[in-house]
Amino acid sequence: MSRVLWLDDLEPHDATARVGPKLGRLAELSAVGVEVPRGFAVTASACAEHEGAAGLTDVLAAALGRLDGTPAPLEVSALARDLHAHYLSCPVEPAVAAEVEAAYRELVAQVRDDVVAVRSSALGEDAREASFAGVFDSYLGLRGATDVVAAVRECWASRFSARALTYQLRRPWAAAQWMPMAVGVLELLPAYSSGVAFSAHPTTGARDRIVVEGTFGWGEAVVQGLVTPDRAELDAQDGRLLRYDVADKAVLSTLAPGGAGMVAVPMPGARRSEAVLDPGTLRAVGDVVRTIDQFYGHPVDVEWVVTQGPPRRCVVVQARPVTISGPVPLPVWDPVDAAMRYAFGATRSPDGWVR
To answer: What are the pLDDT digits (tens) for 34-77?
Structure first.
């Protein structure tokens, strides 16, 4: 079985089954002309190989077997803490690590940049019946083969966090497989702006408009609740701008010194009240969202990045079904809440927003 598969080499008809919906949809969209990041998938079979070689398969099966029925939250939390720690104590199987390192070096040579995103892509993730949004870990701004391999292992281990175990236990079809997981290693695009767009109104399900939200730079400041994105509504048919709300964007997400991870810095003063979504961005995002909606035949939300230029390019980094349909409103409309959940894969916990 393949340990590493390049997105360019995936056959669209079976990409999702091999590398999960998050990465599989990128391969599908690339095949129909939508621009997506370059990168590769560390397959779910590589994860299984690592777990077998490290002796984790039996340990995990025995531990998870104790969660039959309806375990108490404290029992789940205690088991998750032990499983997660044990998982991370096991070095990545050498043959798997070697292939990931080699693929990372090849990606660096292709994109001429050594900073990447490492994103979980569980095989049951982003389904219409259960999105798993925010349940599994992803990382932006990693540099170096050692850190990339470690982040792949972190993504695998995130299947056994308390929130992941709890989420899966509530869905027997998911718990039966314990979410086989692929992991994507993708170029980190130099973001002029980023955000999310919905091909149906995210609060009402109405199909007559496209909703676009965005901020300058990368979206981590939105994920952390530090900034509210600008928001625009477009006519779904002709792309006319129907409404635009400019937010006070006090914070900008950027690479940390040395290029390892993301940090929040003050937004340059003049940009706090500057419109992020200029006509070119709105036209490009609107066009790509309509294309994706038509391709899948159902409402979608699309995570996008407009790169620094020239030229600026609109690149899709994730697409998934909108989880509402029809004129059924959410209880309360909160733009930060919606952007964090739909665009950046975060979920709310007692301690705040997590991914």
So the answer is: 999 999 999 999 999 999 999 999 888 888 777 766 778 888 88
Give the containing element (helix H, strand E) for 79: helix 73-88
Burial 289-328 (b: 16+ CB within 10 A, else e): bbbbbebbeebbbbbbbbbeeeeeebbbbbbbbbbbeeee
Low-confidence ranges of the chain (pLDDT < 70): 1, 68-69, 124-134, 171-179, 259, 323-355
pLDDT at residue 352, rounded to an integer = 47
What pTM value is reported for the model?
0.84
Residue type, 96: V
Unique residue bearing structure tokens 């620094």 = 308
Q: Which two tokens stand for residue 108?
A: 């660096």
> Three-state SS for 319?
strand
End-to-end CA distance of the chain: 30
Amino acid in position 35: E
CA distances from 302 to 69, 87, 340 (A): 37, 32, 13
pLDDT for res 247: 96
Q: Can you give the pLDDT at residue 355?
A: 54
- Please, what is the Cα angle at 212 between 40 and 139, to 5 degrees? 30
Q: Is 112 exposed, middle or buried (0-12, 13-18, 19+ CB in 10 A)?
A: exposed
Distance CA 272, CA 160 (A): 39
d(CA 217, CA 308): 9
- The torsion angles phi and psi of 187, rounded to 5 degrees, stand at -60, 140
Residue 219 confidence (pLDDT):
87
pLDDT at 85: 93
Q: What is the CA radius of gyration of the chain?
A: 20
For tokens 């209880």, what's the residue? 331
CA 17-19-21 angle, to 5 degrees, is 70
Residue 37's CB is within 10 A of a number of other CB atoms, namely 23
